[in-house]
UniProtKB/TrEMBL annotation:
The keyword Translocase does not apply. This is Response regulatory domain-containing protein. It comes from Gossypium harknessii. Pfam families: Response_reg (PF00072). The lineage of its organism: Eukaryota, Viridiplantae, Streptophyta, Embryophyta, Tracheophyta. GO terms for biological process: cytokinin-activated signaling pathway; phosphorelay signal transduction system. The modification 4-aspartylphosphate is found at residue 30. Residues 1-94 form the Response regulatory domain. Keywords: Nucleus, Phosphoprotein, Transcription, Transcription regulation, Two-component regulatory system.
Amino acid sequence: MFTVTKCNKAETALSVLREHKNEFDIVISDVHMPDMDGFELLKHITSEMDLPVILISADARKQVVMKGVTYGACDYLIKPVRIETLKNIWQHVVRKKARNTV
């Protein structure tokens, strides 16, 4: 069972993540947010924490998707996201935990 924490702003999400570093298993973030670009949020998270980050956007351009992967996203989902895709997100958490136990 997972608990979801929702934030309306990237700055708020970053603050919550910093205050509770060991309480989260994964971050799912939109690329386009009003206060911070999703790629900027991704940079902060990957440099400060060991959390898998999934980016979501309606922007399916190859260069945008590749930017997410280059910046360290473990996945980039195109909106609208299918429910079958969401059901598989747990696999990123399992992979991260497996890497940390080796």
